[in-house]
Amino acid sequence: MILVRGLGGGTGLTGTIYERGEEPPSFKGAPDEAAPYVWICDAFYEVDSGGSTQQVNGQEIQIAFESPMPRGFDTKDTALEAAKEHVHTQFARIGVEDVSIEVMEDVEMQEPSSFWTTPLSSPLE
Questions:
Q1: 23 part of a folded domain
Q2: Are the C-beta atoms of 46 and 63 separated by less than 8 Å?
Q3: Which of 15, 32, 96, 114 would give a disulfide with 91, using CB separation of 3.0 to 4.6 Å?
Q4: How far is CA 54 from CA 41, 42, 46, 86, in A?
Q5: Residue-range definition of the domain harbouring residue 34
Q6: In whole angstroms, what separates CA 76 from the centre of its chain?
Q7: How many folded domains does the chain comprise?
Q8: pTM here?
Q9: What does the pLDDT look like over 98-117, one tens digit per residue?
Q10: Dihedral of alpha carbons 26, 32, 38, 39, sign
Q11: At CA 101, angle to CA 97 and CA 102, rounded to 5?
């Protein structure tokens, strides 16, 4: 398992790349075991009302979450590039441009909260 974490605006977002042979999560739309590498991560955007209240760059904003959409890849490099792009895109959608990306390889399954630093709160958790 490979984790890709983005930190910016005082919050963080972590997604997972599942490798062949790893047990994927079991929910509708979970990763397809046929792909050697599968990326899955929350997706969200800022809304004017409704959604969840989050602290970003010291301000409260409202964000709405989309259902995670797994994406399969043939190579590790392609999966990593797509994961990094996805994380940058999610932060850009809420107005955060300065994002640091960390890749953690060969991670053993732990409680999801152990990977977050002041995370965005997803209703899917």
A1: yes
A2: yes
A3: 96
A4: 18, 15, 10, 19
A5: 2-108
A6: 17
A7: 1
A8: 0.80
A9: 999 999 998 876 554 444 44
A10: negative
A11: 165
Are 6 and 31 a contacting pair, CB within 8 Å? no
Among candidate residues 93, 71, 107, 105, the one with its CA nearest the CA of residue 13: 93
Assess contact for 39 and 19: CB atoms under 8 A: no
DSSP state of 36: S
Residue 117, in any domain of the structure: no
Residue 19 lies inside a defined structural domain of this protein = yes
Give per-residue pLDDT as tens, 43-55: 999 999 999 999 9
Is the pLDDT higher at 56 or at 121? 56
Residue 17 domain flag: yes
Residue 26: other Cβ atoms inside 10 A: 6
The pair of three-digit structure tokens given for residue 59, joined into one six-digit string: 């301000």
Please report which confidence band the pLDDT of residue 80 belongs to, taking 50, 70 and 90 as the band edges. Answer: very high
Cα separation of 115 and 93, whole Å? 22
CA pair distance 98, 18, nearest whole angstrom: 27
